[in-house]
Write a structure and sequence with these properties.
About 75% of the residues lie in helices and about 0% in strands. It is rod-shaped.
């Protein structure tokens, strides 16, 4: 009984506290869902996303072209 009384006194006694606890809970829930969905998506598409294939498509810069011309 003391646990329920403590929870009531901390969270449900005033409506402003209920609103604050709800907002904090919603942000926490959203963060957990977002990170979980992102993890599942990236695991499912491993090797297909741009950040995974980008090193294969490295573009030549002006410095690279000058070095290639100097070595010839």
């Amino acid at each position: 009984m003391s646990v329920t009384k403590t929870v009531y006194n901390l969270f449900f006694r005033r409506s402003a506290t209920i609103a604050f606890a709800t907002v904090v809970g919603v942000f926490g829930y959203e963060r957990i869902i977002n990170k979980s969905a992102e993890y599942i998506y990236e695991r499912h598409n491993q090797g297909k996303l741009w950040k995974h294939v980008q090193p294969q498509f490295k573009l030549k810069t002006d410095d690279d072209e000058e070095e290639a011309a100097d070595s010839s």
